[in-house]
Design brief:
Number of strands: 2
Radius of gyration: 26 Å
Strand content: under 5%
Shape: flat
Order of helices and strands: HEEHHH
Largest sheet: 2 strands, antiparallel
Distance between the termini: 67 Å
Strand order of the largest sheet: 1-2
Helix content: 40-55%
Mean pLDDT: 76
Length: 233
């Protein structure tokens, strides 16, 4: 998100800036002094409207609601349902429905993450709009890496891989990053941090759901095997 660079100047009241602001519900309660520009921020006040002119996107309280998928068929229409011929056919139908539902939940989850990522970007625009209009901006930085960091990154990417040694590297027990420890200093960094939190939350939710589906599928597959074993040779 491209943002202008501003020096921190004298603060003016929201009324003097002729803008409407609201306080983010997650704002740090210790940051009550509008005249103090924090060196690191959690959330910032923001304008009521999106400077890009879009409708305000409400925050999603829980992405776990992605498990609720609309029905394709009308349950009140008996003609749309054909009963299975036997238990084995029913189990095949259950497994097929389980696969369809799992795929639909994945699509729901990705759509909800994309929607909330758009909401985060919008909130960052509203935060930045407030800071610019009230002449209090915590020092934006240009997007991208500085030259020394960029050169080091490219050099590392081009380097030949070292021979793997199991006694030096443990690639199985890498802890997840803790984004709560990251200090952010402007709306763009705030947005990047919150998007990464969102992605981690979505990944964890999907992995947990897939593990539950795996156990459910194994249960029905075991029952299907027993049903087949009962059939006369």
């Amino acid at each position: 998100m491209a943002q202008p660079r501003h020096q921190v100047g004298d603060c003016v009241s929201p009324a003097a800036a002729n803008i409407n602001i609201i306080n983010n519900s997650d704002s740090n309660s210790n940051n009550k002094n509008n005249n103090a520009v924090p060196s690191a921020i959690t959330d910032l006040p923001m304008t009521e409207e999106d400077p890009a002119g879009h409708s305000i996107i409400p925050a999603i309280r829980h992405i776990g609601t992605s498990i609720f998928v609309p029905l394709d068929d009308d349950p009140s229409d008996a003609s749309s349902f054909t009963p299975p011929a036997n238990r084995e056919a029913e189990l095949h139908q259950i497994l097929a429905y389980l696969d369809e539902h799992t795929a639909a939940v994945g699509r729901n989850l990705f759509d909800m993450i994309a929607r909330d990522a758009a909401r985060i970007a919008q909130d960052a625009r509203r935060q930045d709009s407030y800071l610019v209009a009230s002449k209090r901006h915590p020092g934006d930085t240009e997007p991208g890496l500085e030259s020394p960091g960029r050169a080091a990154m490219i050099s590392n990417m081009r380097a030949q891989p070292r021979e793997a040694r199991s006694d030096l590297y443990n690639l199985r027990d890498i802890p997840n990053p803790n984004f709560d420890r990251c200090q952010v200093h402007n709306p763009r960094e705030w947005a990047a941090n919150h998007v990464m939190r969102l992605i981690m939350r979505g990944t964890t939710t999907l992995e947990t759901y897939e593990q539950e589906v795996k156990k459910t599928r194994a249960m029905y597959e075991q029952e299907l095997k027993k049903e087949r074993d009962r059939e006369p040779a």
